[in-house]
Amino acid sequence: MKKILIVDDEPNIVMSLEYTFKKNNFEVFIARDGQEALDILKNQLPDIIILDVMMPMVDGYSTLEQIKKEPRLEHCKVIFISAKNKEKDIEKGLSLGANLYVTKPFSLKKLVEQAQELIN
Amino acid sequence: MSSLGLLLILAIYLVMLFYIAHWSEKRSHSKWTNNPYIYSFSLAVYCTAWTYYGSIGLAAKSGLDYLPIYLGPIIIIPTWIIILKRIIRISRVNKITSIADFISLRYGNSRSLGALVTLISIFGIVPYIALQLKAISDTFHIVTKTHASSNIFTDNTTYICIALALFASYYGNKYVDASEKRRGIVTAIAIESILKLVFFLIIGIYVTYFVFDGFEDIYTKASVLENFDKKNTIGGLTNGLNWFFLCLISMFAIFILPRQFHTAIVENNQEKHIRTAIWLLPLYLLLFNIFVFPIAWGGNILFETQGLNSDTYSLLIPQHLNNNFLTVIVFLGGFSAAISMIIVSSITLATMLSNNLLIPYGFIGSLENTSQEKNTKRIVLSRKIGIFSLIILAYIIYRVFVLDYTLVSIGLVSFVIIAQLAPAFFGALFWKRGSKKGAVTGIILGFLICFYTLLIPYALGTTNSASTFVQKGPWGIALLKPFQLFGLDYLDPIPQAVFWSLLVNFLSYLAVSVSFSGNYRERNYAEMFVDIDEYITNHENAYVWKGTANISDIEKILERFLGIERTKRALTIFNLKYNIDKDNKIADARFIKFAENLLTGHIGTASAKIVIASVTKEDKISLPEVLRILEESKENIVINKKLTESSNELKKISEQLQIANQELINKDIQKDEFLDTVTHELRTPITAIRAATEILHDDENIPADVRQKFLQNIISESDRLNRLIDKILDLEKFETGKQKIYLSKNNISKTINNTLESLQQLIINKNISVKFEKKSHEIKAFYDEERIIQVLHNLFSNAIKFCADTDGKISVKINEGSEFISVRIHNNGKEIKPEEFEAIFDKFYQARNQNVKKPIGSGLGLAICKKIIEHHKGKIWVESSSGNGTTIIFTLPNYNTTEK
Q1: Fewest CB atoms within 10 A around its CB: which of B64, B98, B345, B472?
Q2: In what residue span(s) does the Response regulatory domain sit (chain A) (predicted)?
Q3: What is the per-residue pLDDT across B629-686, written as a single tens digit (0 to 9) for each?
């Protein structure tokens, strides 16, 4: 069973993501901001992380920077999901080492497919 | 008092002056030497031994006649604020160093006119210096109770005179550039002016209050003397006319006397010093005259029948009463008055002699071919010798001619001669058509009349007393009697000479100038002199010159006189001032004038022109062409001025534009940020709705409770979307001013309670305790209740949201001030950092804060609160006490103090 970490501060979005990925046989972990995500990552090694950009306290970009510093998390795939859909936002996200940048709103079905593709 | 003792005192006094001069020379920029008082007191060099002793003599003999010499200046000095300022400006830009330079430059930089003015000045002033020496000598003999020795080598005053000549020549000419300021001499002169006044007042008070019993006592005793009434009335029209002419020449004298020109113009450091001089100098003159009358008539009373020289009453009175100390004091005052005049006059005469006579007519050729050091030495030495010889010459004149005349009469003859320069001088300032021919004719004719009506009779009086020249006229022709020329018999000799000489002088200047117009150079300078204020900053522009000249040739000439270093520096300054490329090889008119100016201080205006002309080739220009060029340059100056003004204006406007542009850019950035954030905020609920809908859509077998949850999600996110749109529209209304506020009298406690009630469910859910301190009385304020509920709702929602998770507390407090009521809402949740206090009221302020969301909810709530409160003329702000949550406070105008 593949593990996924979902990081977003919007509870309703998180709820949909959690339901969908569980249904697709993922073990799901949830964090409401970057700090919480980093805390979870100390003990867990998910195959993929879905990361929101705009969050209170620690934003998605700096969360990813922290993740990339950790050799243990080297093989972790990362998908950004964000309502920030400008060229420069996407470029920034990818340059930090994310595997994918998905803009909000998104199709859940497609997101699951992309996630599975990344893992395999 | 013994001769030796007095000589010793004099020596000490001179050493002191020497020291003052030396001291202030070294501190030429300190405020002790460079201030309006030193300037004003140095102008009092006008008061010489003639004033100090002669006035008393005149008052004793003929009553009020001594006054016009001081009234003239007092009347004319107020005009200095305009006229003297112009003369100073003209002299400064042209490096003028003497009255001869001033007059000759105006009339086309004429070498011959400069020489003429120099000769007239020497004629007028050397006897005047002689008069000072006579005063020193006479009073020396009185104090020491000796008699003048006919052998000049055994007469002590000879040696005093030589010492003075040495002092003046040593200190008077240290600089080769005559336009340099001599702070040492000027300060010494100013100190002497103070001393002579103080000493004179001391003797005045002594005579009035100690020898006699006040002014009244003197008057009572004097009024019984013979001729008292006659001497002390103006005495009808003829005497009035006598007075008038004496006033007139003394008015001229205060401008034109070489020593006055020197102290007032050449030594002027700042134009604003004139403002002090115009009250201080008249005051000085008035003070000097207070005790003239008491001393004069006191002397008349004491020495009624003894036939003593009344000029020396101020010495004789204390001596008569055996007051040795006062006698010496008075003598020193008179000595001061005399030597300050001698020093300044001889310095300026020597400069004129060298710059306007010796150099242009004599050794200019040899100067051109020698090195700079040699030239400097020669010029300075020639001036030193000049000063020395002029003083010695004056001494000789004193010994030969003027032994028997009173101080006043010699002084007045001097004034009359110098006054011959007045028409040309004032014409230079005010009349553009005055020409050199006119000036020369006027001066020569005027001087000849002086010579005939004053100098010949005085010379005859000292040599041949038996001559009938004065009584019957030459060859017995009564019309030519020198004191009653052409039958004019009701004026005194001196006013009569003034009348005829100035009349002829003035009319011939006028007539010749009108009949024969001057050459182009005269016209050029006329323009520069009369319109000095227009040319003050760029006077080189006003100089008209056409021809061919190489800068390198002129540079070589300049190096001869200025040295290589100074020449280089001067050229750099010139190039900078007119923005000229330093590789430029051809000299233009501006450069010619600039070079002439540089040389003028060293060798005078006339020689400067000759020297520059020797290496340039000037083309003749016709008079109409000069006028055209001048007109153009004037227009250029005006256009330049306008250009500068409009370029300044443009600069200002462009600065304003820049600011406006920056504001627009900021606004644009803000707008972009706003749009960015709005779209982001809108997309978030849409994302949630889309995700929930997709789940419901794709999965038909979804359990009922899960389905219910997702449907609930859709509803709440839709509401959120709607609220957001409302808020954006609200904010837009406030920002564009479309939002209306409907003010009415309301009870704030009631409004708060209503708001809290609507949030009751949320409060209970989070298990928060709310504490609302109610006041015993009703507090009413003036506000739009619906809007304030919106504010309170927002603030309470935030407070609930950010309250501590466990044991949450919210407290509300109302305070009543005289002008405002304030509402404080506190929650015990997380604090807000001080640097965010202002920012949280910005709409979507997190946009600027990159990607971190701000702690308080959606970005618009507080921004709208702020708008609402501000529309009520209240304020809203945050307070955060460390470790104790957050307080938001807003104020509203108190009902009692706002308009109903």
Answers
A1: B472
A2: 3-119
A3: 667 766 776 777 788 888 888 888 888 999 889 888 888 887 787 787 788 888 889 9
How far A93 CA lies from chain B's nearest CA (Å)? Answer: 12
Alpha carbon distance B88, B86 (integer Å) = 5
Question: What's the average model confidence in pLDDT over B380-391?
Answer: 86
- Residue length of chain A: 120
CATH number of the domain residue A30 falls in: 3.40.50.2300
> Which comes out higher in pLDDT, residue B10 or B410?
B10
Element (H, E) at B128: helix B111-144
d(CA B106, CA B129): 28
Cα angle B217-B66-B425, degrees, rounded to a multiple of 5: 155
Domain-ending residue, one of B581, B601, B621: B621
pLDDT at B283: 93
A83 CB neighbours in chain B (<8 A) are 679-680, 683-684, 687
Give the total number of structural domains in chain B. 4
Domain of residue A103 covers: 2-119
Tell me if chain A has a CB within 8 Å of the CB of B179: no
Pairing of strands B809-816, B769-773: parallel
Q: Same structural domain for residues B15 and B143?
A: yes
* ipTM score assigned to the predicted complex: 0.94
The verdict on B61 and B207 lying in the same domain is yes
Average pLDDT over residues B63-75: 85
Mutate to test the interface with B, among A6, A32, A54, A113 (most CBs of B within 10 A): A54
Task: Tell me the pLDDT tens digit for each residue of B798-853.
Answer: 888 888 878 888 999 888 888 888 899 998 887 777 777 777 787 655 444 445 55
Number of structural domains in chain A: 1
Is residue B59 within 8 Å of residue B296, measured between CB atoms? yes
Q: Is residue B262 in some structural domain?
A: yes
pLDDT over 90 percentage in chain B: 15
Considering only the beta carbons, identify the residue of B676, B687, B699 that sits closest to A13. B687
User: Which domain range does residue B691 map to?
Assistant: 628-736
Question: Chain B closest CA to A110's CA: distance in Å?
Answer: 11
Q: Does B696 touch chain A (CB under 8 A)?
A: no
User: H or E segment at B746?
Assistant: strand B744-747
B517 touches chain A (CB under 8 A): no
pTM of the model: 0.63
A56/B contact by beta carbon, under 8 A:
yes
Confidence of residue B199 (pLDDT cuts 50, 70, 90): very high
Domain boundary among B485, B515, B545: B515
User: What is the pairing mode between strands B820-827 and B780-783?
Assistant: unpaired
